[in-house]
Design a protein that fits this description.
With 279 residues, the protein is an alpha+beta fold. The protein contains six helices and nine strands; from the N terminus they run ββββαββαβββαααα. It has a domain of 106 residues: Ku70, Chain: A, Domain 2, CATH 2.40.290.10.
Length: 279
């Protein structure tokens, strides 16, 4: 695993040397644009909007549009005036309850590995966070950009999770959300029953990117066929949206269907045990 950053966690007078490693990856299927006639790759060109002429890199500047069609140009020295100092420090500024943070603020996690001589203070911070249910809110500069971040205890280690700033979260005030719409008592009870019947132990390995898997299967079939067209497989019909009027009836059918589905999936010994218990 390739490290992306080296520095230290700082809180109070404590400094813990650490190294950051990516904790996630996105396995997107990448495509190239090609000319249909001979499959020649297509290159992107930088052209000016006013005359369609190609522009060399040395002639390109960065501009901020402050009114439609009006720009102010920023030079390298302008950016250097606002560059944040890269201190190589995860500077914890306060500790807060993890439960107080809206999950929408969390963005991207990184593993934190202790550096030489950092095992003891690293373990100390990890255990304190784990026992208290708190996270450290920090500022950190990565690749010239300042980030808000949370230092979290995760199993036997620490994770740095980059966060959105408050002004990056779009408020939901423009959405039409149900206000004082109160469900009936029976509807609420049956909805809770349905949720309970669908509740299981969290197993992340049970969920796969089915679209990517199916797309890679099509690609492999076309490679095996020498790039020729292959027959399309019949897809299952999509569920049609319905105008729910009788919620109780819909909930009842959902509970029955899910119960039957679970009974089929459970092993015979489990079903026999459940039958005896019911008897």
């Amino acid at each position: 695993m390739r490290a992306i950053w080296k520095g230290a966690i700082s809180f109070g007078l404590v400094n813990i040397p650490i190294t950051l490693f990516p904790a996630t990856r996105r396995e997107d299927v990448r495509f190239h644009f090609l000319r249909k006639s001979d499959l020649s790759p297509i290159n992107n060109k930088r052209v000016a909007e006013v005359d369609g002429k190609e522009v060399a890199w040395e002639e390109i500047v960065k501009g901020y549009q402050y009114e439609k069609g009006k720009f102010v140009v920023l030079q390298d020295e302008d950016f250097s005036r606002v560059d944040v100092e890269a201190t190589q420090t995860v500077d914890i500024q306060e500790f807060v309850e993890l439960s107080d943070i809206n999950p929408m603020f969390f963005s991207k996690p990184y593993y934190m590995e202790p550096g030489k001589g950092g095992d003891k203070p690293y373990a100390l911070l990890r255990d304190v966070l784990k026992d208290s249910g708190k996270v450290g809110i920090a500022k950190v500069v990565i690749k010239t950009r300042e980030h808000l971040a949370a230092v979290k205890a995760q199993r036997s280690g620490l994770v740095l999770e980059l966060m959105h700033f408050a002004d990056e979260i779009i408020p939901d005030t423009e959405l039409h959300l149900p206000g004082n719409v109160a469900p009936g008592k029976k509807e609420l009870e049956m909805a809770k029953q349905l949720v309970e019947s669908m509740t299981g132990q969290w197993d992340p390995e049970a969920f796969k990117d089915e679209y990517r898997g199916a797309l890679m299967e099509v690609i492999q079939e076309k490679i095996a066929a020498g790039g020729k067209e292959v027959g399309a497989k019949k897809k299952p019909g999509a569920l049609k949206a319905t105008n729910v009027i009788d919620l109780v009836s819909v909930l009842q059918k959902s509970i029955q269907q899910h119960g039957q589905s679970r009974a089929k999936k459970s092993p015979p010994a489990t079903r026999e045990k459940a039958r005896k218990k019911a008897a």
